[in-house]
TrEMBL record:
Pfam families: CheW
Residues covered by the CheW-like domain: 19-156
Source superkingdom: Bacteria
Gene Ontology biological process terms in this record: chemotaxis; signal transduction
Organism: Clostridium aminobutyricum
InterPro entries the record matches: CheW-like_dom_sf, CheW-lke_dom
Protein name: Purine-binding chemotaxis protein CheW
Amino acid sequence: MIKNDMDNAEKLLDSAADELEILVFTIDDQVFGVNVSQVREILMPEAVDKVPQGHPSVEGVYMPRDILITVINLADYLGIYLPPDQRTLFIVSDVNKLNAAFRVNNVLGIERISDKNIEKAEVSYAKEGVLFGIVRVNKRLISLVDFEKVVEDIAP
């Protein structure tokens, strides 16, 4: 009986090893995903203090709960026009020792995908590797973004 339980546990671990959970979000009418391991929390946007001579996609900084967070306009970084009156959210991440809030339009939820279903991205935004793949979920194409690569490009 114990052997069967161990076999089942090993099968579960093996099947989970090739799966990835992604947080699915939108910017304008485009759908993106990011590995949930790169997400700390989702916050409503707050006023941002400008930072002089920063990267053009960095809106500035703000301090919720006494933590300094750099706000990155992901639409701007990816070259997507986002009308200023559209609703937005912050996806907060701590990558490469930088607390960053990525401004997006909407969060749609979390999806579990198989590594085998990720297609290599033919087109990349900004610096190579930012868009590392595309996956189809529920008849919808999701472009997978690597927040770590975005931060490396903005704050090397």
